Amino acid sequence: MPEILLPIGPQHPALKEPVNFKIVVDGETIVRLDLDISYNHRGIEKAAEQRDFVRVVPLLARVCGICSHSHTTAFVKGIEEAMQLEVPARAQYIRTIVAELERMHSHLLWLGVAAHEIGFNTLFMWTWRDREIIQDMLEETTGNRVIYGVNEVGGVRCDLTLDLIRASFEHLQKLEDRITQYVGMVKNDETLHMRFSGVGKLSKADALKYGTVGPTARASGVDYDIRKDDSYLAYDEMPWKVVTDTHGDVFGRTLVRIGEMQESLTIVRFCLENLPEGPIAVKAPKTAPPAEVLSRYEAPRGELVHFIRTNNTDRVERLDIRTPTLANWTAVAVSLVNQNIADIPVIVAAIDPCLSCTSRITLLNGRNKKTSLMTWDELRSYSGEYYRRKRCA
Amino acid sequence: MTDPLTLGSVTEAMNGVGTAEQVSRNRIRIKTNPGRLHKSLLLAHTILTCDHLIQISAVDNGTIFELIYHMTGPHQTVISIAVELPREKPEVMTTSGIMPASGIYERQIHDLMGIEFKGHPGLTRLILNEDWPKNEYPMRKDWKPDPGTFYGGIRGET
């Protein structure tokens, strides 16, 4: 059978960011993949060079809507390192709480998206409903649901009151009940097993070779987690463990994310119970001395890096951001090879790409140049149909 | 997690390929030249067991370009290998042969900074759109958007 080029994307008005895949297929089997992520370049790194530190922070919160806290924390902690600033413990604890709430809501969102991709819409609705508990907590704490605006160079901008802490414990209890239910579901549900097990396999050696980060790497047995390896905020002051798995497939990635949600619950509870007294910020100087800082941060999707160069002014000379999704693309390209077209939605969703919105598919026959068009929805229902047929056969 | 690397052991492993310097608690920076870049990365990858490429940072300080390869491994010490490239001829050999992970980062740097990675299997556009004019590299310090040039979007609309 001749090889066929299968372009997917780039636009979908309802979902996250745009991406275009060019997938070469032989029959229903994927031969190789190339991608085009150019649709969303906004020049934030360039803009960051032209603003002072105070004004860069809100800009960086807008790099990504889901992990806005990750980007601002990575940046402020880098600048604080360059300024050699001692940040109050209470501020570090509050940052940790928001970071872990963000991780939980991001993982719940992912679980919903993954469930939706396999047609399991009940689970999708459940996880997105439960995600609201965290959104409410974030709103009560910071005043915002998406871009929290908690960070500033030198500390945080909002304090936790006793009433808030008390209310948070109630929310966390509800959340724990729900997460426990998902743990059971993921382990025992037949549909999830059928669509996730053995799909998108990535060995430990390959995960390291292709520079994978975050839950994608940890599901292949790589125990790298920046919170432990290059500890920051308050993570080295509390008991928690790095969640790994050896399945190396989409199922493993699901187990890791579920496990991480449970760990996040522990971390948030510990922080609320042991919140140190004292100020929440120190006054930061206007300028930073010449320095070169590599600020690493464990975002929900994996290791996020902000490379910062300062030069005695109130602006950065260079801010180089490496997001976890970029690091994981190479591995997606590898784990898609030799898989079925029906598994594209799940494998792509499994790294939790910060875009995942692909809308239409053009089927292009390499030999007779015939093209046909397919929407992402059609691909999804094709996937469902394929597995239904497979099950009956 | 194994023991962190010390400045002494890194200097010894590098064997004169570059000069090492401890910049923070867990970060050692090695300065080398483009000719020795390949060898130093290979040494870091094999002898220092750095199995994870964190990032290739690209900096334009107005006069020269700098590339900094940050790597780490089970020891969790960050090894940063830095090279300087002249503005007139920003070229360096690709490292995607040693670490396939660097391929996508090199494409990004090529797009935004205009650094040529010789021997890269597919140094095509990644970050910028297909309409972006050739030989314009937005992350260079001396780049300014030209009002008469078309940078993308719909022609005639801006």
CATH architecture of the largest domain in chain A: Orthogonal Bundle
Instruction: Count helical runs of chain B.
Output: 3
What is the 3D shape of chain A? globular
Specify the biggest β-sheet of chain A. Answer: 5 strands, antiparallel
Report how far the terminal alpha carbons of chain A are from each other: 23 Å
- Give me the CATH fold name of the largest domain in chain A: Cytochrome-c3 Hydrogenase, chain B
CATH class value of the largest domain in chain A: Mainly Alpha
Strand order, largest beta sheet of chain A: 3-2-1-9-10
Going by helix content, strand content and strand pairing, the class of chain B is alpha/beta
Average pLDDT over all residues of chain A: 85
User: If classified by CATH, what would the architecture of chain B be?
Assistant: 2-Layer Sandwich
The CATH H-level homologous superfamily of chain B: NADH:ubiquinone oxidoreductase Nqo5 subunit
What can you tell me about this protein's structure?
In chain A, 49% of the residues lie in helices and 15% in strands. Chain A has 393 residues and is α+β, with helices and mostly antiparallel strands. Residues 355-370 of chain A have low confidence and may be disordered. Chain B has 3 helices and 7 strands, in the order αββαββββαβ. In chain B, strands 1-2-5-4-3 form a 5-stranded mixed beta sheet, covered by helices on one side. In chain B, strands 6-7 form a two-stranded parallel sheet. Chain B is elongated. The interface between A and B is large, with 34 and 40 residues.
List the helices and strands and how they pair.
The complex is a heterodimer of chains A (393) and B (158).
Chain A: E1 3-8, E2 20-26, E3 29-36, H1 44-49, H2 53-61, H3 68-83, H4 89-117, H5 121-142, E4 151-152, E5 155-156, H6 162-188, H7 190-196, H8 204-209, H9 214-218, H10 226-229, H11 250-273, E6 291-299, E7 302-310, E8 316-322, H12 324-336, H13 344-350, E9 360-364, E10 371-375, H14 376-392
Antiparallel strand pairs in A: 1-2, 1-9, 2-3, 4-5, 6-7, 7-8, 9-10
Helix pairs in contact in A: 2-3, 4-5, 4-11, 4-13, 5-6, 6-11
Chain B: H1 7-14, E1 19-24, E2 27-31, H2 34-46, E3 52-60, E4 64-72, E5 78-86, E6 91-93, H3 102-113, E7 116-118
Parallel strand pairs in B: 2-5, 6-7
Antiparallel strand pairs in B: 1-2, 3-4, 4-5
